[in-house]
Amino acid sequence: MTTGFSTTSTAQVVPTGRRRLATALLQGALLLGALLPAAQAQLLATGDPRPDGAVLWARAESPGELRFEISQEAHFEQPVQNLAARFDLSGGLTAQVEVRGLLPGTRYHWRLVRADGTPLLARAGFVTAPVAADKRSVKLLFGADLGGQGYGRLAPGSPGGTTGWPIFEAMRAESADFFIALGDMLYSDRPVTAEAPDMTFSKGNAFQLPKPGPGYVNNLDDFRRDWLYHRSEAHIDRFYRGTPLVATWDDHELVNDSGGPELVYGPRPDELARDARLKNSDPSRPRAADKRRQSVFHNPELYRAGRQAMFEWNPLPVLDAARGGDAALSPEGRRLYRSLRWGGLLEVFMLDTRSYRDPRYRVDSDATPKTMLGAAQKQWLKEQLARSTALWKVVVSSVPLAIEGGNERDPARHIYRDAWLPVESDNPYAYGRELRELVAHFKRERIANVVFLTGDQHFSNLIAYDPDGDGQPDFHEANIGPLRAGPGDGKLDTSLNPRRLFTDEGQAEHTYGSLRIDGDSGELVILFHDVAGRERPGARLQLRPR
Q1: DSSP letters spanning 126-151
Q2: DSSP, res 279
Q3: Checking DSSP bridges between strand 178-181 and strand 245-247, what pairing results, if any?
Q4: What is the C-alpha separation between 127 and 113, in angstroms, rounded?
Q5: Dist CA 78 CA 70 (whole Å)
């Protein structure tokens, strides 16, 4: 596994005195920005575009009431809707509205307007989804892993002239219909210093804006602080103003390898007797006797705060939690899993792989099979996939199917698996029985043209799966590497007969993916792109519908 990314920039050696001065200036500038919220005001984003509307989200500079004004023309001479919203400190100065009654396949513009009728400067726009009978071409982008392993916002004056989160400028140039955020778009449990870890930068550089705080979160205000650091950057803000966001979460929006039941309820007595570390609840992750940082296994308050921040900082539709579900896992009464239909060619199924999953340290057996999705979400997915009339079904799972995941080990040295499959035949901790149940459902219901989009593991892969061994792949997976975070690697579980069509293991790059479906042929093409937007050699998946 490599320790950093290479870039096309030339490394620059900065004298020690200048490095210290630059670091001090950058830290002072960031502190000043925190004291002047107007410098980070009017963050806008559109979410989940549908044929008749979308979710409009904003963060204001101060408390008060603002109107979301929507128009078909950019000068707002004849607004089609005005929806009022209150921005309060209790919501982190964020607010959203769900607009309905719009025309399908139509471009709209929107802005914020004060109570006295004065419009604010920021503007956003989106195109509503086409109706199900419309088979126009579609293009979406997807990505994951932003701000992990010390990779933060690049500072002005960095080599190559890049600043902030530069990959989003290339993504903005794609003019996609929408962007799927696969999770880990926040690293609440990782620090970012002024020193950029990029391999081509000299040691001791000051090429990043450090993230405020100690590098971990304790409460809701800490989560809000970290979301603001990620979202108040110019490239990502411009991108979200013009490209709708369809978001889910993964573990680092909470804490590494975690999930709802694990954080809320903690271990059973027999599990705690097997591994005493499972009682740890300290988000600072103090070092154990072996000098390794401990994981957070049980912290209900952290779960509630992280979940609230996720809903505050993303344009997410208000969908009621499943009836009869565990209220402690959905304390606000909402759910993240949902589907998004885009004309006749595409339906996207957004999964929530964190809120309902059994603890990673729980054993998966025939007698007590584990769940990653929870009963209600699993039944919803089965039913919706079987009913879908879209040509292509894209299933979004924040964690990969066959690539290994997980960091902690039990006393017998088995890894507490975080992804779907165990990799080792004697590992009892994954979620493989549930995944194999879903794969059997695809076969039984003859659900064709299924593609999984996954993230989490910080390197990129294209994989074909042939679980019945008939020589014809039954479904595919595009597992995307980081937008800006440290590189990863991982072994492949072979139980579903996977075949890697592309991998950059050992030489991972900062990457985003694009998925296009042609309206005439129905052909689907997935590409991986580098920070500049160039197609990565060999990273192409081209599929014709069956």
Answers
A1: EEPPPPTT----EEEEEEEEES-TT-
A2: G
A3: parallel
A4: 21
A5: 9
